Amino acid sequence: MKPTIRDVAKLAGVSISTVSRVMNAPETVVPEKRQRVQEAIERLRYKPNAFARGLIYKKSDTFGVMIPDIENPYYAGLLRGIQDAAAEMNHSVIICNTDRDRSRMLAYVRNLFEKQADGIIFASDSLHRELYDELKRSRLPFVLVSTDAPEYDAPSVDIDNEQAACEAVRHLIELGHREIGMIGFPVGNTISGAPRLAGFRRALAEAGLDHCASHVEFAAHRFEDACEAAGRLFVRAPQITAVFAASDEFAMGVIAYARDHGRSVPDQLSVVGFDDIRMARMFIPRLTTVEQPVYQIGVRAVHKLHELMVNGEVSVLHERLPHRLIVRESTAGLRV
Mind telling me which InterPro entries this protein's record contains (predicted)? Predict the structure, then answer.
């Protein structure tokens, strides 16, 4: 059986903290005790590890990243940014897929606490009260990513979702479209659902197209859900010539449904997505979409968490990174 720090302490007749000080700051230990510990380490062939050091200093150079759906392509770029930034700081990352299950979220927080994680990055989901209370109880520093919880004053990194959605819909309006629909996230279950819907409706109101405000169908989170939502939308409003989708995956679902039912994109239907995942450039037609700086969001989340762990606070509580509309092939001027 592999020897532990406790075995070394027992053989040397000292405390675990003394063993740790011998390994990390030997000058702070009296020579006689230091020699006993070194002899015990040699005799047991003990090799210290990060977890053993964490037991002493309550620090493991590890943090958890909680995401709702590891299959969602949005999180690939986010996780890459997080892991690259963490590696530069010699930190390790534990990825926790929550499936938006509240009990699983709570279990992950408790598990990360037991593993002496230094903090948590919580990505793209609602921070419900019970989870917030558990985070505060564990005293684990945490940063929200692609989400927000202003009622708790929790540090966050995101974009301005309402403004981004508004600009996407304005693009459709500038192309001459006057019958516009939306496939959105359920407002009550996701943080970005409400502001993206608000941006959609703000752009319509500015253009005097309030009659389109009800042309909205909601989908869960996946391509298949968006296909079904598009079917419901086109049955209710067959006159629609353009659709704003709350994610690129939703936009792909809308395009797939339209093609299966005889509507070409962009000749007969323009579609705008959101996120600019890698697939947006590979899909045919290439998607017009709102680009989120996903990689940089991940990097900034790590830096903000580090700042919080070191200083106990952050200089900018709610950080908003810039977005931009990228026009590709899935949108075109209205053809009468």
Answer: HTH_LacI (IPR000843), LacI/GalR-like_sensor (IPR046335), Lambda_DNA-bd_dom_sf (IPR010982), Peripla_BP_I (IPR028082)
